[in-house]
Fold this protein.
Amino acid sequence: MDEQTSMANKLKAIDPSIDLVAEINRLRKEKNAVILAHYYQHPAIQDIADFVGDSLDLSRKAAATDADVIAFCGVKFMAEVAKILSPTKTVILPDMEAGCSLEDSCPADEFAEFRAKHPDHLSLTYINCSAAVKAHSDIIVTSSNAEAIIEQIPHDQPIIFAPDKYLGGYIARKTGRDMLLWDGSCIVHERFSERELIKLKAQNPDAPVVAHPECPKHILDHADHVGSTSSILSYVTTNPATDFIIATEPHIIHQMEKDAPGKNFIGAPGADGNCNCNMCPFMELNTMEKLYLCLRDLKPEITMDEDLRLKALAPLKKMLEMSPVKAKV
Ligand code: 13P
Ligand code: SF4
């Protein structure tokens, strides 16, 4: 039986009368597990997590935890980072199918070939990629530290940036660096409609627009603030405005409503003005039921060949060393 069929059977077999929150809390204690969640997770998962954060925060937490088990509620590349940084821990992911379109857009063999064609280039690689691509990279970056890391690299050093052409383009414009960009994108952030955003801005003239740098330039050009999920969150919390237009995955609005009660957050629309296309279909695969099952069975588990792990660890360590606030590995 394949893993997905076995998961479907296990889901069907869950007693509908059980209290999932109580069971997850019981299992977390029993297994000495920490639950880490990204801001794009379902609100119930964000609420039960020990820690909610962006990719950089979550990797730091994974590196520092003394729990035996890391239940990673995010997508697979994030759980892989947890395993690379904390190899002795059992790292579980509620649904192993939770991938990422950026990871998919950069197959490791094609990336290795591309690198071989540009041997003088340093590879700065966005954390949204497979462990195999990390293993072919020099330094990993996230949306919250990419700019600060690039500023530490000599200006005459040619750079490859993969796999997100939009984040790469944004950083290149901000730092004035001419980088060679891999042609990858996020299917969620590239769906926002500029036309609909302009309409929404006209209806809400006092609402600042915040956007994730995975959005294309034509969306970022309308933003008052561009930043990682945690940067966007801190902007809306501290900015005196009461209404905000949010151009990133809308599950983050749950955390915004918790951190800035009384403010109003309007999700930026897709092309038809009212679509669900800006929900991340990969993040959505994780549910409370699957979190319960993975804590109960300690499966699906992230496993990794040690040679690959060590190769992927080197550029991740560089990232943590070069990030503005250092973390221990
Ligand atoms: P952050 O690092 O800003 O949380 O972004 C992760 C991500 O996958 C955005 O789509
Ligand atoms: Fe990947 Fe985009 Fe989903 Fe982030 S929102 S996990 S980049 S597909």
Notes: The first strand starts at residue 33 and ends at 38. The chain has a mean pLDDT of 95.
